[in-house]
Amino acid sequence: MPEPIIAGEGGALLFSITPPKLSTTPEQAQDIADAVLRRLDGLDVDALVLYDIDDESDRNAEERPFPYLPTMDPARFLADHLGGWRRPAVVYRCVGKYDEEELAGWLAEQPADRVLGVFVGASSGTKEVRTSLAAAQKLRAEARPDLRLGGVAIPERGVEESQRMLRKQEAGCSFFITQVVYDASAAKSMVSDYLLACRERGATPVPVVFTLSVCGSVKTLAFLEWLGVDVPRWMRNDLAHAPDPLAVSFDQCLATARELAAFCERLGAPYGFNVESVSIRRTEIEASVRLAKALRH
Questions:
Q1: How do residues 237-249 score in pLDDT, each as one tens digit?
Q2: Containing structural domain, residue 37
Q3: What is the count of structural domains for the chain?
Q4: Is the dihedral angle over the CA atoms 239, 296, 16, 82 positive or is it negative?
Q5: CA–CA separation, 17 vs 127, rounded Å?
Q6: 100: burial class by Cβ within 10 Å (0-12, 13-18, 19+)?
Q7: pLDDT, tens only, 176-229
Q8: Closest CA to 71 of 128, 127, 10, 22
Q9: Which of 83, 104, 216, 296 gets the highest tally of CB atoms within 10 A of its CB?
């Protein structure tokens, strides 16, 4: 298990991937998994995160910069192709995609000493779902209370997010992973609001893992913003006009990490970092690996 998360302490370093496209053959999927394991070799990360991708066009009517393509079930990709990964895994579940029987089956199969879950609710209030987030949390509490559960935190939601985090914590979440952070000020406000809400409620704060993602092109930047990531205007200008936006983004991610770490340590808030690449471009994926190395050191 990622000990800093289990102990409720700071210091966890996670690395995230998106499973291959649903149309990928088993042979191709294994090649992709082998490439992931090679990248992770030598990276001292506490856990591998596997995202569960859902169509979010109901949340944003703007054209998606990168087309939505269904992906393999992250749990199946982990079980069938990532057998060489010996450390813990954090598996996301977009619960609205599954009925309760499917979720119960997944919960029953997971080894609690190696797998943690993150339940993700609907991308909008109008989206039709097969299982609500509340129902999925209740199912896990009844069927697998020993399976560690995390929740999603979104700094862009403002002061109300701290109350959402408390409700998720009361429903069994023992850690949070944020949406990609480019606005350190919003993330700091969220942590501050959350700590104050915990103090008022008499609750113990749980670790907040900040997600960082490098950005190597204007198209990647547009995709981050389509996903709802708040990129400050000065930073957007910097990235859009830099001769090497990937290098600028890398430095900004490190600066953001240092700022968030200093802030959380001053307040005594448990924290960690999660590194991902929202792009499938090799240069951006390799930069995300370098970022994880830099964060560990």
A1: 998 899 999 999 9
A2: 3-296
A3: 1
A4: positive
A5: 25
A6: middle
A7: 999 999 999 999 999 999 999 999 999 999 999 999 999 988 888 888 888 888
A8: 22
A9: 216
